[in-house]
Amino acid sequence: MPRLLQTGDVSIKPFKDTLPDESYIILLLGVTGCGKSSFIEALAGPGQKLGISGGTLHSVTQKVAVFQMINIGYEWSYEDIRPVYVVDTPGFSDNRQSDAKTVRKIQAWVEKNSRIDLVFYFCRITDKRITRSTQGPIQIIKSLGMWYDGLTIVTTMWDTVPMQNHEAQAHAASNFAQLHDIWKDEVENGARFVKFLNNQLSAISILTFREAWRHCVSNFGNNPATALLIFEELLQRIQKAHGYRQFLQEDRSQILTDPNRALFYILTCSLREIDRQLASHVDQLLAFRHTPQGFDGDVNIQSIAYQCVLDMTSSSKEFMDQVGNELFSYRHPRRSRDSYLYCIFKAAKEEFSKAYNIGREFALCN
To answer: Start and end of every G domain (predicted)?
Structure first.
């Protein structure tokens, strides 16, 4: 039976070249901060730091990254041991990137490299509760249409649960049971459910514990079920980002009457980031061209995209006008105050110019 075989001291290294035809590919998936990169760091072994694990709510891995296993190979037959590659991916439920964009990044990589042999899906055991944002990516994974014999659900963060803290231990055990129940059908059909203890021995045992499945996924994300899930998540992202942008805009307008340079800078940076996210979401939405099969609702993709761009442009124009009115409304100028408002006015003009150009480009392209 083909299997993954340890042939010496195990390590791992980044791989930048084209994958060999006879390679064995393991895809790591999960939400941001779930432990994918920590798993790779553990495989590297003590004393070797790859610098890819961040331990934050922002994904360190923004692109698909490939690593080659050292001294773990795919034993196809006697004396025929082929190279094994571990593929790290951007996290789902990331604050800065929609799941649609994450799926498409992975999809593009899979299409280029033809197949995936095993999938490891990572789940934190320390989450306060299994929320909708956690289950959304799980539903995406379930929608991929993979052979479940090639799926391993890896529970993580066990090393952060204090042994002497009975409440934390009970909570972790409860989460473990809940996750096992969520993945019950997949486990009954061949998927594995394991604990990763954040050390090399644990990582190696997860890799080599069972026979090696081949071609678990060959058509990543190219099905109606996955398209529907990421489309719905994208609409939710746009709605949430739009509401947050409005909130930031209102807060920033209030600073005109109560100057606060530091707060203005923070709010402006936040608005720029949310505008970047909205622009990215609009691009992802337009890529659908039409609503996916099974979508329950009356949605015009072009109208939503246009409204997003229009809102960004009009709110930028409104803020610029507010600053201008405030700046030129006093008969007796005060140098410090006017200098502050002039800087804001200049920034507002630049912001409006960018928003206007985005809107103009959108109108020309659509």
So the answer is: 26-126
Query: Which pTM does this prediction carry?
Result: 0.85
Q: Where in the chain is the domain with CATH 3.40.50.300?
A: 3-208
Query: Of 35-44, 198-207, 323-332, which gets the smallest average pLDDT?
Result: 323-332
Q: Which residues of 48-86 are buried (b: 16+ CB within 10 A; e: fewer)?
A: eebebbeeeeebbbeebbbbbbbebbbbeeeeebbbbbb
For the record, the structure tokens of 314 come out as 């009009």
Residue written as token pair 């080599």: 208
In angstroms, rounded to a whole number, what is the distance separating the alpha carbons of residues 171 and 106?
33
Please give the Cα distance from 162 to 37 (Å, whole number). Answer: 22
Please write the tens of the pLDDT for every residue from 205-263. Answer: 999 887 767 777 767 777 888 999 999 999 999 999 989 999 998 888 887 777 777 88
Question: Does domain 3-208 bear CATH number 3.40.50.300?
Answer: yes
Q: Does domain 224-365 have CATH number 1.20.120?
A: no
Rg (CA), the chain: 25
CB atoms < 10 A from the CB of 168, how many? 14
User: Containing H/E element for 176?
Assistant: helix 166-182
In sign, the C-alpha dihedral spanning 183, 64, 90, 195 is positive
